[in-house]
Specification:
Layout lengths: L8 H100 L4 E9 L2 E8 L2 H13 L3 E14 L2 E13 L9
Antiparallel strand pairs: 1-2, 2-4, 3-4
């Protein structure tokens, strides 16, 4: 006998295909979401790793900047010390010259001339003082010109002054350039 199937098999088949489609769709969505999650985790991990590297580089950069600043400070201190050492060496080297300058100044001063102040600036010396008469200032300038330690005496000013209630005194100011320093063989 033949059997006739009166059940709605097409409808069941459609329902079965629909259910399979949703199961597959859910599986694909789940796999897609899992893949997105894994990719996101990987990207976040790389970002965190890069942030760590950036922080490390920033920290090392800060250390290097501090070291550079410290090096600049040390270089500045070194330059200052070198300048001081040069000044001290120049003073040490000029010590005999200064002695000869004062010795020659004392030798060139004629009677009746008194120094109130002596100021040395570079290669010139400014002398201020009192003289009994103008001819004494002239004698001083001639003596300075004859000296090997001095050259080019230049009288800046001469004016009348009184010293201890004595009239006739002249107050003078002159500049003279330092000449050649005597060598150790001479002096």
């Amino acid at each position: 006998m033949t059997r006739i199937n009166l059940l709605p098999w097409r409808e069941e088949r459609r329902q079965e295909l629909k259910r399979q489609f949703f199961v597959i769709l859910a599986g694909v969505a789940l796999i897609g979401a899992g893949s997105v999650y894994l990719v996101d985790m990987s990207v976040q991990s790389q970002i965190q790793h890069q942030k760590g590297r950036n922080n490390f580089v920033a920290g090392e950069t800060k250390k290097l900047e501090n070291q550079i600043k410290e090096i600049k400070e040390l270089q500045s201190k070194r330059e200052s010390l070198v300048e001081r050492m040069n000044v001290i060496q120049n003073l040490q080297g000029n010590r005999p010259v200064i002695v000869h300058v004062f010795e020659d100044l004392a030798r060139t001063v004629p009677d009746g001339v008194y120094f109130n102040g002596i100021q040395s600036t570079g290669q010139s010396i400014k002398v201020e003082g009192l003289a009994e008469a103008n001819n004494r200032v002239s004698n001083l300038m001639r003596n300075l010109n004859k000296s090997e330690m001095f050259r080019d005496p230049n009288l800046s000013s001469v004016k009348s002054a009184s010293k201890d209630d004595k009239d006739g005194w002249s107050e003078f100011s002159l500049t003279v350039k330092k000449g050649l320093a005597p060598t150790d063989e001479e002096g």
